[in-house]
Amino acid sequence: MDLRCMRAQHLLRVAGFKYEQGRAVVPVAVEIGKPVKNPMYQGNTLLGSREVMESCPKEDIDSFKDGLLEENIYLITEEGEQGRLPVLILSMNKSDQKKRPAIVFIHSSYKCKEWLRPLLEAYASRGYIAVSIDSRYHGERASSTTTYQEALISSWKNGDTMPFIFDTVWDLIKLADYLVQREDVDPFRIGITGESLGGMHAWFAAAADHRYSVVVPIIGVQGFQWAMDNDKWQARVDSIRPVFEEARIDLGKSIIDKEVVEKVWDRIAPGLASQFDSPDTIPAIAPRPQLIIHGGEDPRCPLAGLHIPISRAEEAYKKAGCPENFKFITESGIGHQMTASMVKAASDWFDRFLKPIHY
């Protein structure tokens, strides 16, 4: 790993993606929860079909539901309402004492952990401890269908939270604290993956915390500074447009332009387009196995913006002596969507590096 990557990784770990001033960091505590009967989905989200997730490879197990163990817990990651992290864990009920690999799955914008249940069940059937969380201001951490957008606007105006990426990454660091202490989890075999916003969370969490030993961000990796420099920021901005509109008004602008975008990123996610951007943080994950899956026509994560981070990552893995630990897959003709082949590629990658033994 070169000095640039080491510096980025060090900054991420030390900063913890948090403003520590005025926040009391608390020891991770666990509270028992209950299954969510009516999951919260926000905005104008069209849930559609779970067919893509249901295509994930699974074991054919008799009476699978009878042997499936479900845990609903809350981790206390900091003081305050949003410091209560909802966690859903699925695994197969086993009598042996062998530690198993765990994989953390993170949902996309406006969804929640319950949406990912088909993936959790598929991985659990294959012997993994399958874990999912509600990102900040999502799922059980939302009180209305506009909670996430309101949090983004509040972050712009007050600068006291970082709901877009970094606050959830802090939760993922605390989740790792919990997972490595579980008797059924192998602390050296914890993977992380996610779709879209969840892919960003997976990417940054792995860059910040080496305990995530295998990472697969799906349609989430992008070059934030590249997008601003090349006038390709519009689709990403549209995904959380209300905060940019609010900033436009506050800055006295008639339209959202590059200056507005730059100021919003600097305010709600400091360093996102500089020392924490993909050209530094993607190679910082080396030498841990990393698979990046991308749509070739994705407007939110433009392919051209990944040339530098991918080339730097390939070089970092070569220097580490393990070029086979890095792979970049692009699906031609696919926009910002997760496909069945992406789900299969992620599954194969995890099985290659984390596969449960003698399940």
Structure in words:
By secondary structure, the protein is of the alpha/beta class. Helix content is 37%, strand content 17%. It has a 9-stranded mixed beta sheet with strand order 1-2-3-5-4-6-7-8-9, with helices on both faces. Helix 5 runs parallel beside helix 10, helix 6 packs across helix 7 and helix 10 packs across helix 11. The longest helix has 15 residues. It starts with a helix and ends in a 5-residue tail after the last helix. The relative contact order is 0.15. The N terminus is likely disordered. InterPro entries: AB_hydrolase_fold, Peptidase_S9_cat. GO terms for molecular function: serine-type peptidase activity. This is Peptidase S9 prolyl oligopeptidase catalytic domain-containing protein.
Set out the fold topology.
Layout: H1 3-15, E1 29-32, H2 51-54, H3 64-67, E2 68-76, E3 84-92, E4 100-106, H4 117-125, E5 129-133, H5 147-158, H6 166-179, E6 185-195, H7 197-208, E7 214-218, H8 224-229, H9 234-239, H10 241-250, H11 258-268, H12 278-281, E8 290-295, H13 307-319, E9 326-331, H14 340-354
Helix pairs in contact: 5-10, 6-7, 10-11
